[in-house]
């Protein structure tokens, strides 16, 4: 299945699924918190999800992330 998300957005989604917040994702990926917030907003628009929980559920349903990661 082709994904709507970029590789950078997928990395952010994986970290979101591991309960990281924007600030800690930024630290892990060595990016600004603004960049991570922008990735999150783009993912919400692309997927039609309303919030971070919806994004994680969407990622699981679409085999982009796994609960076993």
The global form is: globular
N-to-C SSE string, H for helix and E for strand: HHHH
In the predicted model, the low-confidence regions spanning at least 5 consecutive residues are: none
- The total of helices stands at 4
Instruction: Write down the overall mean pLDDT.
Output: 93
In helices, the fraction of residues equals: 55-70%
Q: Output the radius of gyration.
A: 11 Å
What would you call the quaternary organization?
single chain
Could you give the count of β-strands? 0
Label the structural class: mainly alpha
First CA to last CA: what distance?
19 Å
Strand content: under 5%
Largest sheet composition: none
Which features characterize this protein?
single chain; 69 residues; mainly alpha
Model description:
There is one protein chain. With 69 residues, this protein is an all-alpha fold. It is 64% helix and 0% strand. α1 (7-17) crosses α3, α1 (7-17) crosses α4 and α2 (22-29) crosses α3. The model has no long low-confidence stretch (mean pLDDT 93).
């Amino acid at each position: 299945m082709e994904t709507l998300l970029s590789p950078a957005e997928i990395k952010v989604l994986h970290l979101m699924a591991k309960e990281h917040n924007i600030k800690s994702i930024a630290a892990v990926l060595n990016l600004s918190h603004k960049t991570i917030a922008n990735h999150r907003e783009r993912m919400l628009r692309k997927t039609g999800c309303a919030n971070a929980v919806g994004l994680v559920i969407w990622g699981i349903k679409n085999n982009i992330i796994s609960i076993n990661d």
